[in-house]
Specification:
GO terms for molecular function: DNA binding. InterPro entries: Cro/C1-type_HTH, Lambda_DNA-bd_dom_sf. This is Anaerobic benzoate catabolism transcriptional regulator. It comes from Streptomyces fradiae ATCC 10745 = DSM 40063. It contains 6 helices and 2 strands. The chain is mainly α. It has 2 domains: about 40 residues, no CATH class; about 70 residues, lambda repressor-like DNA-binding domains (434 Repressor (Amino-terminal Domain)).
């Protein structure tokens, strides 16, 4: 890895050894890698985790995508093709692992022949 990140990486590796020397709010940097295990960059982790209500909404969105997909008689592959995304993205959204980007959500809604509002409505009265 280039010298520009070596100091930050050294500090990040030492966080667990000297927690008393850290300020109360700290940004932890994570080394990302590409699929060939080459170092790509250091990116900050979220300073605060998502609240439970936001994670519940993510799970609800995933359940709605899955149920509407099944009602339309589509497989994850079929929906991915129709929405111009990867099948793994559909799987991650349905399992509540990731959030779709807005335009991906628009494409999924279009492929399922529903409005985006029907996917993201906060209650079950769709």
């Amino acid at each position: 890895m280039g010298g520009q990140y070596s100091h930050m990486l050294h500090q990040a590796r030492g966080l667990h050894r000297h927690p008393h020397s850290l300020p109360h709010i700290v940004t932890v940097w994570v080394l990302t890698q590409d699929r060939h295990a080459h170092s790509v960059s250091l990116v900050p982790t979220r300073r605060h985790p998502y609240p439970d209500w936001a994670l519940a909404r993510r799970a609800l969105l995933g359940h709605r995508i899955a149920s509407l997909r099944r009602a339309a008689g589509l497989s994850q592959d079929d929906l991915a093709t129709a929405a111009y995304v990867d099948r793994r993205s559909i799987m991650r959204w349905e399992n509540g692992v990731r959030d779709p980007r807005y335009l991906d959500l628009v494409m999924v809604a279009h492929a399922l022949n529903v409005e985006v509002a029907e996917l993201v409505a906060p209650d079950e009265r769709r």
